[in-house]
Design brief:
Layout: H1 2-25, E1 29-37, H2 40-43, E2 47-52, H3 58-66, E3 73-77, E4 85-90, E5 92-93, E6 96-97, E7 101-112, H4 122-127, H5 131-135, E8 147-153, E9 158-164, H6 177-184, H7 207-210, E10 223-229, E11 234-240, H8 253-260, H9 264-309, H10 328-331
Length: about 325
Amino acid sequence: MAHFWITIGVYLSICYICSGYAREEACKWNLNAELGLDPQSFDDGASYIAHLPNISDSIGCQSACCRRGDCQLAILGTPADGTAECFLVSCVNDGKDVCVLRPSSQFQVFRKMSVSPAQPTEGYARLHTCTECCTSPQLVGPCKAAHLRFYYDINTRSCKSFIYGGCQGNSNNFVSQEECESTCGGVIAKDIPNPKKSVDIKPKDPADHCLIPSDPGRCRAAFPMFYYDSKTRSCRQFIYGGCGGNANRFTSEEYCMKTCQGQEGHFQERGSTRDRWTPAFFLVATVAVISALLLAGLISMSVRKFKLTHLSPLDDKEDLLPEEELPSYMDTA
């Protein structure tokens, strides 16, 4: 009997090990160390399908991606000032793999060996039809990491950046501005966001922030961003510190160019008008001052001439009285 139970135990152990091995073999991975996802991939159709801040190891991140048919990349972000976090990415757009990698020391990317089109899962649909994602207030959380995130401000109906502490946040927490805008763009309190809404939502007046210089902010994180240089009419990369700064800040070069270059004529006209008025103002002011001085001189000369021509020649002579009007004492003399 003991031999029987030993045999059963060994058999079950083998089955458990084999099943675990089979699960591991269900997905084969191509490890890309020190590479991150190029933001251009999102413009080409890639999308974040899950943010798993509670998973901080590569095996757990791979397993989470392996369980989803619409996941082709498992990305483990390792910021210098915070704990690692897992992100799942869908790379398929119109049947093509659109994910492009670029060097980055803060990420580990695990790509599934075979990428095939997949239908979005129910969880993905819930992610993009969740009103709570767009109506919840910004929540930093109690932890002290410094992760750049974006949240939807229901009052201004726009996506804004904030620093996420790394734990106990809420669903209004997006990895990129594009993801935030595509999910919540234009949403009001009772609206349901449209997941098909374009991610390239331009502000009402891009010239206001496309003309200002880049600002890294007051914090000391290191997030690669892009700003529009109005002098060279191109978008350039800079390092954003993670807080503060201004609106001339974009997550990708193409998004920067689409936002600012499309308004180039508008803000060039504003800039040229400003440049025209500056010298014109000084020219008009100079002419006005000279004209005033000339007018004052002419008036002064006219007054002096008038006085000279109206002086009487007898003004300096005595006015003598006639003899009959002389005093009596002068007659006796």
